[in-house]
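re: ur question from earlier - yeah i can do the single chain one, its not a big deal. heres the input i used so u can compare w yours
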Amino acid sequence: MNSEGSLGNEVYNGNASHCNSGSSIGIGCSSDANNSGHSANKRKGIREQDECDSNNCEQSTRIISSESRSNGEEEGEEYSYSSSTDVGTSNKTAMTNCSSGDEMEDLVSGEPKDMLSINQRNKLTKEGYKIIGSHSAVKLCRWTKSHIRGRGGCYKHTFYGIISYQCMEATPSLACANKCVFCWRHHKNPVGTKWKWNKDNAESIVEQSVKKHQGMIKELKGVQSVISERFTNGMNIRHCALSLVGEPIMYPDINKLIDELHKRKISTFLVTNAQFPEELKKLHKVTQLYISIDAPNKEALRNIDRPLFKDYWERYITCIKILKTRKERSVFRFTLVKEYNMMCEEILGYSKLIELGSPDFIEIKAVTYCGSSEGYQLTMKNIPWHEEVYQFAFHLINSKQVLSDIYEITCEHKHSCSILIAKRVFKINNKWCTWINYEKFHLLVKEKKDFTAIDYCLETPSWALIGAPERGFNPADQRVYTKGKNKVKNVNVNIPIENDASKGGAP
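and the output i got, formated as tokens:
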């Protein structure tokens, strides 16, 4: 396997390029005045005005301070958690794009009601969500459909051995405490700072989620190139990504839901936006726990995540500290947005957060463009190339000696512009072990043993490693191009099914 330095020259036509302040990290970072000025305007003087129906909510305007962002914590700033949940003026201004209709419901006193209005339910249903009860949902991931057709799995398949065609994407809480600018749900879900809605039974949510997911799999029967054996196995759900939309740990019975999934031998990847530290402390062990690291400092976090909590930064830092104390596999997830959160001068701020949380893995992924809508601000110019994602990863782990001693770039999934950085402790006998032994995990949970991330790791296949010619695409599948000169039409897929469990995937 090539080292990062050689990879930079051989794969990406140049090692990590020198970055100048005010420029986004990427290929050919330059000090061009126009580029720097444009980025500075994005960073320092953004005025966000979202057109809202005055009958539904007040139009809000936020002018971000013209002072430059800091490189992390401010001098003398205490990293502590304030228990206050007051929603102040700054919180209200964060609730832009009120098209979903019920986004201030957590501010209204009274008896609990259903989380979703009829309008919200209709919008989410129209976009393919299968609503469960009053506050949960599932949706079929495009990578599940791709993998069941033998056209490749998602980056989690490459990095961790997830079998994408046996993966269910779900949430027990459609509500969230942020309104992130890059949210690919286009802000059609409700928001809130605490649970004030009717609560559905955890066992019922899991049962209905499984049934509705299986129903969506059944709809693929007869679709061209669907592999019959994968179609059959796809009905047997082995993994749940609790990251569909909203904030899963807002759901009061999240631990009961996790336990129910594990009873069914369904592994769990849970993603939190780091705004609920008390809930995070009480969370039962999951297979892999994520924190979304969207910005390196307070002002940037306000700009990108548009949080409702007044003490959003303190909550963010406290959650990062809590992650360090957890014993299951932990991940920092970076979603890179050009001109928003991948500036050269922000690297040191990110490195401080990594030292604070000490995650086992760092996922760095380019934001996915989701088309235009009233509530979605991004354009294609905000989407990084895969090479730029790699450059960011390289600069990040080499920004401090302490990081380069602990972490190494390990895997890539070029198709989704994703890079994985792992702690060197997962390099066992000179072989990377980023994949998960799911059977071992379920056994450890069942026996109620105190275990760590190393206890259920598994060797990573060579095709998933950085520098491999496959670039993270499983050679057991067939890449199908639908655009450009490589476009393939009417591909007949006849791929032998391998024993995925023997390579780390769930059976």
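Residues 100 and 188 are 5 Å apart (CA to CA). not sure if urs matches, ping me
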